[in-house]
Amino acid sequence: MNKESVLADLKVLLGIDDTSKDALLMIIINDCIDRVCGYCRVEEFPEGLVSLLPIMAHRAYAVGGYGRADPVGSVTMIKQGERTIQYEGLSGTSGDWLTNFTDRLEPFRKRRGRLPSECV
I need a surface site. Which of 1, 29, 90, 118 has the fewest CB within 10 A? Predict the structure, then answer.
């Protein structure tokens, strides 16, 4: 897999023309790779998912609020007693973006089960 190609595709999706955020975007790409490998229980990133990687990284970038000094998403809840304001895509939801891709990941998932006697 060519990470530079994935980075270029991600920058197109995000509308970024310069190299100022390349380091941040590469961290997000590597995190997506690690999450997919962990979910699928594989050592190598599946070749059949390379085209999905920039889309996943885009989602992780948007949901995580990366690249913003003051990450504010859409307001989803306001509660005035004890004042609570909840924003979409921030705290608590940053890990949930992977669930949007489980249908695409499922065919690549290895189902290794263990017997209780093997867990000793």
Answer: 118
Strand ranges, E, within 1-120 = 75-79, 84-87
Instruction: Name the residue ranges covered by the structural domains of the chain.
Output: 3-110
Of the pLDDT bands very low, low, confident and very high (cuts 50, 70, 90), residue 7 is very high
CA distances from 112 to 39, 49, 55, 103 (A): 12, 20, 28, 19
Whole-prediction pTM value? 0.72
Distance CA(54)–CA(112), nearest Å, equals: 28
- The pLDDT tens digits for 18-41 are 999 999 999 999 999 999 999 998
